[in-house]
Amino acid sequence: MNDVIVVASGKGGTGKSTVCVGLAAALVKQNRKVLLIDCDCGMRGIDLMLDVEQEILFDCSDVVCGNCKPRDAVYRSRNLQELFLMAAPFDTDNEISPSVFRQMVNELKSEYDYVIIDSPAGIGSGFATAAAPADRAVIVTNAEPTSIRGAIKIRNRLRSLEINDIRLVVNRFDRKQFEQNACYEDIDEVVDVVGVRLIAFIPYDGRLSAMLQNGCAGLNWSPAVTVFDCMAKRIEGKRVPLAFTG
User: Fold this and answer.
1) pTM for the predicted model, two decimal places
2) Other Cβ atoms closer than 10 A to 127
3) 70: which residues sit within 8 A by CB, 6+ positions away?
4) 167 touches 191 (CB < 8 A)
5) Confidence class of residue 245 from pLDDT cuts 50, 70 and 90?
6) Which residues pair with 3 in a beta bridge?
7) Beta 114-118 vs 34-38: how paired, if at all?
8) Which residues contact 207 (CB under 8 A, 6 or more apart)?
9) Of 7, 103, 130, 143, which shows the fewest CB atoms inside 10 Å?
10) 169 CB-side CA count, 13 A
11) Can you say whether the dihedral through the CA atoms of 21, 112, 160, 41 is positive or negative?
């Protein structure tokens, strides 16, 4: 299988990293072995979500600099035995070139069913690096105009990189707020504006955020987790309907 998926967003604050962890945890529940790579240089956070921050000795920049082998920079999640992480560097000066990153991912991917790459928000150099080894992409957006404008930019950039297998996640959806904003008639209009096929529609769920901020990925149940389980099945090509619990 060895699928490499980049998860991207046009602006910060969409919950992209939460989607990465939620999808990875759901795929592990499907008996898949998953490597998460955090590419958000200077802003890394997935190590906290997986409760491995105290274990990180090497990050992806150490691999590039020759301080360690790629496998030495991979850490197992505390709560999900088949979920692994390669952390981003704390220093934004340690950004990795697309060609070097592609080579590193190609060396590692044969050991996993899925490699999920958490891209930095926007379409800068960090995004180009994160997308370089990807077979397909997931765009994360919120149902509001500035976020959707960013999603359209990401879609166009992905297609320019010849990544055409793209799916959309509408995240942190609050129906009451959506109706009050009255920017779009319904979610179908949001999907039509972005122009990417919807794969998941995730409700705002404060419990999920609290779980992840406390390093509890994979331990507890919340309404959004049900949606991630459905999303994982759809990533695997299974014909299941969209789930939404909000």
Assistant:
1) 0.92
2) 24
3) 63, 86, 104, 107, 108
4) no
5) low
6) 114
7) parallel
8) 220, 222, 223
9) 103
10) 32
11) positive
